[in-house]
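Please check this today:
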Amino acid sequence: METIKKNKWLSILIAVLVIANIATLSTFWILNRKSPENLRAAGRHEASLFIINELNLNKDQQLIYKQLIAEHQSEMHDLRRKIRPLKNHFFSSIKDTVLTESAIIKMAAAIGEKEKEIQLATFNHFRELRKICTPEQKIKFDKIINQVMRMVAPPGGRGEGPPPPQHGNGPMPPPPPGQEGMPPPPPPGDFEDMPPPPPGQ
């Protein structure tokens, strides 16, 4: 009788542990699925399919588009790799109480130069895409380009700056773009890691 009771409690304990593990894994999966980077990747993939479908790109155009994406990915990866340490150094210097104004401006200018290269790279990427379009496709392209840029914008329209203040530790962040008179977000600076269009569409 005592053995039966022990086995019963052991079975209950095992069941509780299994349920707890499932709940933990489910929570981790949901949070990871909604991470900013995953959301950005999903937006790029969605934009790629949107462009193909809206412009009705033929197979030859899709092959060229795939190559344009690959080249842009490589260029953007290099630019992001160079700008990241510049930003890290810039914001790490906040604690430096003897930092001169000219030094601050110089660091900000270095970051701004890389940001300019990012914007130009994205601009040229879409300019090359437009070149392979037919006259009819170019008309459609001009109508959807701003929508495409919104689709690939970072979550919340944020860039790579420092994190926003937490509740109670500083002023509340501004409302999302498009609300309470806020202007829409500027075009994002990259299509980095955007998956190539599926073959044969």
About this structure: Helices lie at 2-33, 36-55, 59-92, 101-131, 135-151.
